[in-house]
Amino acid sequence: MSRSHRGEQIVLASNNAGKLREIGQLLAGAQIRIRPQGDFGVPEAEETGLTFVENAIIKARNASAHSGLAAIADDSGIEVDALRGAPGIYSARYAGAGASDEENLRKLLSDLAEAPEAERTGRFQCVLVYLRHPEDPTPLICQGTWEGRILTTPRGTNGFGYDPIFFVPTHGCSSAELDPETKNSLSHRGQALRQLQRLLES
Ligand SMILES: O=P(O)(O)OP(=O)(O)OP(=O)(O)OC[C@H]1O[C@@H](n2cnc3c(O)ncnc32)[C@H](O)[C@@H]1O
Ligand SMILES: [Mg+2]
């Protein structure tokens, strides 16, 4: 069956305002029409997977089942080499269930207090999954990775989450100091979404 669905409405399986804003900006002018799962009263899915891929599938399946629409989910996080890849898939709950962005970021800085500079390398990961329906056996899966370093103090006010402590070597600033268009052109999410758009519009 064709993947083409111009004009068809798709539910976006996220409650994260930062992600919703970026994905909305990235899809401005695109054929794809998305609506956040909050519009359909979709309950939060439990992210029980051990990989970004599994968690993205869980969230997309949940949103599709509750809305009756095709769904896109974003599972993302930050990996730090000094912490052997942590917080990774646990990035949203690094400082505990329901932790704020600020609390997660502070815990990461404190866990890295003794880390040698050479090991403060890390990356953002983003997996996007598209499901046509809850039992779709062939989900579209796209991934983006954005390499950087972890700063010792936060800088900048744009973006969300760990952006104020993610240093972007190619631009010499944190990702919270980039304007939204520049972040989207470089980011893990921008990369993954452009891939997904190509697949959906082909
Ligand atoms: O599951 P949903 O409802 O989409 O929202 P969430 O915030 O729980 O999202 P995740 O489970 O995918 O966790 C992503 C974590 O990684 C962080 N993160 C992801 N992308 C980011 C970005 O572009 N900039 C900064 N932090 C980011 C984000 O702040 C979260 O702590
Ligand atoms: Mg989540």
From TrEMBL:
Q: Which parts of the sequence bind Mg(2+)? A: 46, 75
Cofactor(s) of this protein: Mg(2+)
Q: Where is the signal peptide?
A: none
Provide the reaction this enzyme catalyses. ITP + H2O = IMP + diphosphate + H(+); dITP + H2O = dIMP + diphosphate + H(+); XTP + H2O = XMP + diphosphate + H(+)
Output the Gene Ontology cellular-component terms. Answer: cytosol
So where does substrate get bound?
14-19, 76, 160-163, 183, 188-189
Which GO BP annotation is one of this protein's? Answer: purine nucleoside triphosphate catabolic process
E.C. no: 3.6.1.66
EC main class here is hydrolase
Task: Write down how the cofactor binds this protein.
Answer: Binds 1 Mg(2+) ion per subunit.
User: SUPFAM superfamilies, from UniProt?
Assistant: ITPase-like (SSF52972)
Is the keyword Oxidoreductase in the record?
no
Q: Which InterPro entries match?
A: dITP/XTP_pyrophosphatase (IPR020922), ITPase-like_fam (IPR029001), RdgB/HAM1 (IPR002637)
Q: Name one GO molecular function term.
A: ribonucleoside triphosphate phosphatase activity
- Alphabetized CDD domains for the sequence: HAM1
Cytoplasm: present as a keyword of the record? no
Q: Which UniProt keywords apply?
A: Hydrolase, Magnesium, Metal-binding, Nucleotide metabolism, Nucleotide-binding
Q: Which domain of life is it from?
A: Bacteria
Q: What does this protein do?
A: Pyrophosphatase that catalyzes the hydrolysis of nucleoside triphosphates to their monophosphate derivatives, with a high preference for the non-canonical purine nucleotides XTP (xanthosine triphosphate), dITP (deoxyinosine triphosphate) and ITP. Seems to function as a house-cleaning enzyme that removes non-canonical purine nucleotides from the nucleotide pool, thus preventing their incorporation into DNA/RNA and avoiding chromosomal lesions.
Which family is this sequence assigned to? Belongs to the HAM1 NTPase family.
Q: Quaternary state and partners of this protein?
A: Homodimer.
Protein name, per record: dITP/XTP pyrophosphatase
Species for this entry:
Thiorhodococcus minor
According to the entry, what is the taxonomic lineage of the organism?
Answer: Bacteria, Pseudomonadati, Pseudomonadota, Gammaproteobacteria, Chromatiales
